[in-house]
Amino acid sequence: MSEAAKAVSDPRSGKATENPFDPALFRPEAISAEQRAANEAFRKAVTGGPDWWDMGAAAYRALVASGRGPLPLAPKSARARTIQIEGKGGHKIALRVIPPAKAATGIYMHIHGGGLVFGTAEGADPMLERIVENTGMVATSVEYRLAPEHPYPAAWEDCESAALWLAKNGKPEFGTDALTIGGESAGATLSAATLLRMRDHHGYTGFRAANLSYGNYDTSMTPSQALAPERGLLVGRLSIRKFAEAYLPKGVDPRDPDVSPLYARLDQMPPAIFTVGTLDPLLDDSLFMYTRWIAAGNQAELAVYPGGPHVFNMAPMPLSPGANARIDAFLKNALG
User: Fold this and answer.
1) Which of 34, 45, 88, 207 is the right S-S partner for 270, CB 3.0 to 4.6 Å?
2) Domains and CATH numbers, the chain
């Protein structure tokens, strides 16, 4: 069995498999009745509200901040604090820091999701508290600039600046320079782009691990994006296109490797875990990136969850505890 195959386990049993693309995972009968019921409840919770592109991003953000969005507001961490670092051109970037109870074993640089239009660093507090507790790392979440007010490359530059600051200041600030990185959805997209920018712009390849959950790695649309229902479960073909229109200026090639890391040279990347559900329109993105990651000579795990929709592991679903435990274990093990 190859090293890559050893790294892949069946999320249903936890046993190793030589075939990370087990056909059984993708068949309708693989979806449990409990997960189907959770998906239906999720559909009812997120359906029926206004579309953000009709009311405008700023107004929709205000709606979400008031607690009237499609998902409930996440509780804030009592131990979180915010520090300011300097970004490109003197721009200030906020890092939300959640420390462990004891000396940090490493630093988890987190990048939140939201289609590059929505989301906040503090919105990830519960998830980051879990990772801190289970890995011993200090979590630092990047408050990057959002589109359409700040289109590409603003978010890319902010995340690159944060990574560069952590690489230089992690030891004096947090007592460790063992860096890991990760994010969900757009946060996974930016995490991959940040790894590439750190390698290509700064010669830095010191990240120990990457946690890449259901990212969009091809702004020109992978087949699963293009073939998805126009209005899917939280995310569909229409919303994916609207997000891309918001963050990508006209004239920028949607297959530019900086925008769509699926097309990048992927050597010298850290071990990565790619997590995705079979009902996610971004399914192909994770399957394709996992394959390219391995083909470039990097270690990777592929975790596919039958019936999981977009952001499934951030919702109260039957698949969530197992998926999150696997992510936490991967990050902890990467620190050795």
Assistant:
1) 207
2) 3-60+71-334 (3.40.50.1820)
